[in-house]
Each structure stands twice: as C-alpha cells, then as structure tokens.
Amino acid sequence: MNEPSAPGSVDLTRWPAMADPLPSTFRAGIARILLKRVVTHTNIRVVFPDGTSWGDPRRPTMRVIHPDRFFARLGRDGLIGFGEAYMAGDWDSDEIVELLTPMARDMGSLVPAAFQLLRRWYNERQPLSEDNDRRGSKQNIARHYDLSNELFATFLDESMTYSSALFTTPRESLAVAQQRKIARILDIAEVQAGKSVLEIGTGWGELALRAADRGATVTTVTLSGEQADLARKRIKDEDRSDLIDVRIQDYRDVDGRYDAIVSVEMIEAVGERWWPTYFRTLDDRLAPGGRIGLQAIVMPHDRLMASKRSWTWIHKYIFPGGLLLSEQIIDEVCASHTSLKVVDRLHMGDSYADTLKAWRERFTADPAAIDALGFDATFRRMWTFYLAYCEAGFRSGYLNVVQLTLAREGEHRP
User: Fold this and answer.
1) Dist CA 283 CA 286 (whole Å)
2) Confidence of residue 7 (pLDDT cuts 50, 70, 90)
3) Which of 21, 52, 96, 174 could lock onto 388 through a cystine, CB 3.0 to 4.6 A?
C-alpha cells in the first residue's frame, strides 16, 4: 500500500485535537495493559523505538513512534485517541488493514468486563448538535459530503458512486461492480419504463441516471449542495433533465406517492430517534403495489445495543450523527411503525471490503493530488485510517451490507 507518510508538523489551528496530550500515568498504564491484551487476543505485533516488541514477528506489525503521546491519547480517549494517534503520526503500519481486521473481529471481547465499567468515565456521548433533526441533518451531511466533489473524484470510479459495489470476483473493475449493484437495486424495486421513482439520497446522480435509462421518471432528494450541483450537471450532460428532478430537500418533506423507492446507504445518517419517521416516510410515499430497494450497512444487534450511545472517532471526524442499524432493528421498526416487510435480502459484505480496498488504493496513490485540493497530510492520514478501518470491519465480518426488498404486508410476490 502506498501509505501517506507521518506528518512532520501538524497544523494545530486545523487539528486542535492533535496537540500533545497531558501526561496521565494512571490512564497511560491502563492503555498499556489493554494494548498487551489486544496483542495476545488478536495475534498482532507492536514494536517500539527502543527495539522492544510485543507479539510474534511474523504477524501484522504496528510501529509505535511516540510511545508517551500514543499511550496518553489511548488512555485519555480510548478508540478516539487510537485514531487520533494515527492522524498525529504517533503510530504507523505498513499492513494497516491486516492489523485492524482482527481487532474488529474481536471488538466485543477485547476490553475485559472490569475495564468496561470504566468506559462511562471517558466515552463521550454524541453531542446534541448532531441530532438528525432537519437542521442537524443538513449540518451533518455538509461536513462530509460537501468537502469537495474533486476530492471524491480522486478515489471513486467514473460513476461517482460512493457505496458498496457488488463484485463477482475481486479482480473485476470497480466500475463494472458498481453498475451491477445499481442494476440489482433497480431490479428489486421493479424500476422500469413509465414508473415513478423516489430516490432518498442522490449521491452524485448515477442511480437516477440509470433509472432514467430504463424510462422511469425520478425525483431524487439530497441535503448536499455540492452533490446536487454535480448531479444536475451530469444529468444535463446526458440529456436526462426531462426525466430527473434533483431537489435539495429533507426526506421528511417529500410528498406524493411513487411506484418505486430506492435508498442506498442513506439510512446510516438517519439516527435512532428518527428511524420510525424514516420508515413511515417510505410507507407513506410508496404507491399501492410498489417496491422499495434499500441498501444498508448493518452490524450485530448486540453490538449495536452496547455501543449506540457512544461517540466514536468516526462520528468526530467522518460521519457526525451517523449510526448503523442491525437487521433486527429494521425488522422491528417496520413491524411496529409501518405496513412494510422485508421480503428479500442479499448480504454483500465481502464486496464492500473489496470496494473499500479499491477506494483506499486510489486515495493513497497520489498524495500530491489531495494536497493540491487544499487538504494536508493529517487529512490524508485521517482518510486513510477511515477507509482502512471500514475495510477491516467488513473483512472481519463485524460489519455487513445488505440489499433489502421491502413491500407491504399482503402485497408480496416472488
């Protein structure tokens, strides 16, 4: 992997959390104990500047470059500190996915029960400002998706699709696998000529364009101004403006009924408080006999219940206000708040791991291109860690992604 080098100097005006942490012998000592446990349980290796090491030399290796800062961050902020330590260059690895994968696999058991009780003293709660009401949703989406269309273009395929592809083999092109994913979700929603389609979460317009190719009329909503601008340009360039209406609109404010609804990896931005509202909206907007194609990242139900109140590194730096669901939660919310039912499922976690690998390799291939857009080395390390962290989640099986077909009770057909 062509991994960005550790920043020699972090711009603390842009990255205040990267300031050297205050020393804490007690917390740093706990962090050392926990890291040794991780080494034992996951069979990784950790090496230190003085030449000492923990673990088998043949295993994926983590190099601790600044031990005092690393253990201070880890002891103070747990997994948030672990990610920030990577951003600050306090540790590094040439095998970052291989290193993180066994950690993700054993996520529920790495911290012993006695230390779990201490989590409430250092685990922060999600800020109230990141609640996904109408105002919060727009702010949360802007913080990620309005970074720069040019940034996303550096690592996405030509379709600008920012969700899991569907591979038949890891060796096929990302572009081909993305079109297979899009075709399948349009198929399960029964999108065809003459039908009206609602898309919740426009992205950069690829799914709407392919639905229009089938002769459907599409209303697609997003909260990202950057995405809407590029989607409209692409739609105009492909002469599909008569079939596609791109709106900067909250999903809760859509009216009318549609023959099909599609939503790809948008539900992760909804938040627990709003899950019933989201699924009721799907139910209210779906015409009789219609189908919904939903693609969602999911996690084990027990881990969701244990962690859903935590504020994580991903929340702080990548997806504010985000929360994954479990399939059990989706089934329960649909049963309790709608007339909808999941009638078909396709799990494709291996495909997401391969998608993330392709994105990470593209992202790290040309650091100068990222720098030219105004993003610094700390940002590049942050996004490298994000992409590797997510890939490890899917490689380990801790995370999965599923395409769901939803229909109303009594309207199911093969």
Assistant:
1) 5
2) very low
3) 96
